[in-house]
Write a structure and sequence with these properties.
The protein is mainly β. Helix content is 4%, strand content 42%.
Length: 505
């Protein structure tokens, strides 16, 4: 049998809602293993499973945290709608502000800062990619250059200067694909027919290299990877390599789609499944791809992530999807191929207001961002501590501690060891608070001294251990702006010198 929908939503044909007991600060999830085939023929239930999830406030007093990203430093990175970018230590919850974008335009509706991604080699390749509206009808893709030594963003390079935008329907999400390229979802900017034009980037999933150039085997010889989208606001790859996207419908037919290279997803000619005679004709002529799941009336699906961790056995091989209008987190269980949704569950229903994004950490911890302080009329939902990032965990599961939860400078130095540079090379130049020199991997403790241009020693370090084999890192303390000579001596008598420029604050 199909379990009743406890919350009154319309369900995708043949799918079901699970029953949930909601208690203060925690939720107990009762999952009924009811499976369906592609033809919606029910198979007998496979039994009952139970996992208790605790909900904790991870961060609060934010302004519409729009995009959550897990960084190589094992920190949670967040870009708020205002353009503020932060990184938060998952263990201490200490928040560091990385940057605040200048010139972000926020309409009465849903424009602002929309998507963020870190370069795959960050911070050694020190780029943060951002997509944001800079006026009502225009948005841009930029990359920010982050300086480890300065602890701040130094400059912004605009890669794609002039996406068509609007007060809403700008999308978007960005992420690295398994092929190493950058994927980006774009809304139709309230210009429906542009989704069906290969001359426009609106209403598309884009694929590019990290300089924003089209990948050589893209299907249409430009940036476009798939087309016929309305307003996709979720984008994620599963373990199988499949790409999934969630997008808003007009009044009916919100969708989650399996994205395939060159495929047309029908908007505005087709809404949701090809379930009317007219749509069937169009689906055949356009070779349009039908959604994995759809909902009518619309519920406003948003952020999307893939979950396949033993911390919540019932959710393995699932898509996690946040909803704005219907204010819940939905679990879309996939079959073994990753190409069909077998059944659905919901949690957090109406408990925390609008939910904008979801992020699964590598160790299975789940983070959900609320979206209650938007200026499009929904801010009456905001609680005193909104907007927030919530964390969902199984208190009975021993989560692996992610190592290292690391300072960006230490991560940078660790990355440098993967590609050694010639012995004696010093960087950065100019230096501010720290200086690094490549040494032989056989060097142990060393002495380091700094001399001014008159030959006077102005800084002498006691025997100094290397940061790692072959890498010496020294804090500069109170050295004044100027040119110096750095001398390093190893216990075995080896000696290296380099001229260095220091700029103090």
């Amino acid at each position: 049998m199909i379990l009743p929908d406890l919350h009154g939503d319309d369900n995708h044909a043949g799918l079901k809602q699970s029953m949930f007991a909601i208690v203060k600060r925690s939720i107990t999830v009762y999952v009924s293993r009811v499976w369906v085939t592609c033809l919606a023929v029910l198979v007998p239930a496979m039994g009952w499973f139970q996992t208790t999830l605790e909900v904790d406030v991870f961060a609060k007093d934010l302004t519409v945290p729009w995009d959550l990203v897990w960084g190589p430093d094992n920190h949670l990175w967040c870009m708020e709608k205002t353009g503020r970018i932060t990184r938060t230590n998952p263990d201490t919850k200490a928040i560091e502000e990385i940057h605040a974008l200048d010139g972000v335009y926020q309409s009465w509706d849903n424009s602002g800062a929309h998507a963020m991604a870190l370069h795959p080699d960050f911070p050694r390749t020190p780029y943060i990619y951002v997509h944001y509206a800079y006026e009502e009808y225009r948005s841009r893709l930029s990359r920010l250059r982050y300086s480890i030594s300065e602890h701040r963003v130094m400059d912004e390079e605009v890669l794609i200067p002039d996406f068509r935008g609007n007060s809403s329907h700008n999308g978007s999400r960005m992420l690295e694909g398994p092929d190493g390229h950058l994927y980006m979802a774009m809304g139709d900017a309230y210009n429906k027919i542009s989704s069906q034009s290969l001359e426009s980037l609106s209403g598309k999933i884009l694929r590019m290299d990290w300089d924003a150039n089209p990948v050589s085997d893209n299907p249409f010889g430009n940036l476009i990877y798939s087309w016929g989208h309305r307003n996709p606001q979720g984008l994620i790859f599963g373990d199988s390599g499949h790409l999934y996207a969630s997008e808003h419908g007009p009044a009916t037919d919100d969708e989650v789609n399996l994205i395939q290279k060159g495929a047309n997803y029908g908007w505005p000619l087709i809404e949701g499944p090809c379930n009317t005679p007219a749509e069937q004709v169009l689906c055949d002529s356009l070779q349009a791809s039908e959604p994995l799941a759809s909902w009518s009336p619309t519920q406003a699906p948003c952020g999307l992530d893939y979950f396949n961790h033993s911390s919540i056995p019932e959710w393995q091989n699932s898509l996690l999807l946040t909803f704005l209008k219907k204010q819940h987190l939905r679990i879309l269980h996939l079959d073994e191929t990753g190409t069909h949704v077998t059944h659905e569950d919901t949690v957090l229903y109406g408990e925390y207001g609008r939910l904008r994004d979801v992020l699964v950490a590598p160790n299975g911890r789940i983070f959900v961002a609320t979206s209650n302080q938007e200026i499009n009329g929904w801010d009456y939902l905001a609680a005193e501590e909104d907007d927030r990032i919530l964390e969902l965990i199984n208190p009975n599961y021993d989560y692996e501690h992610l190592l290292p939860v690391i300072d960006l400078n230490d991560l940078f130095l660790t990355q440098l060891l993967e590609s050694p540079v010639e012995v004696g090379k010093v960087f950065p130049q100019p230096a501010r608070d720290g200086l690094t020199m490549f040494l032989p991997t056989t060097a142990g403790q060393v002495n380091a001294r700094f001399y001014d241009m008159s030959g006077r020693m102005v800084l002498g370090a006691e025997p100094h251990s290397l940061f790692a084999n072959g890498l010496l890192h020294i804090r500069l303390g109170s050295l004044q702006t100027g040119m110096y000579v750095m001398e390093v001596r190893a216990i075995n008598g080896q000696r290296w010198t380099s001229r260095v420029l220091i700029e103090s604050d």
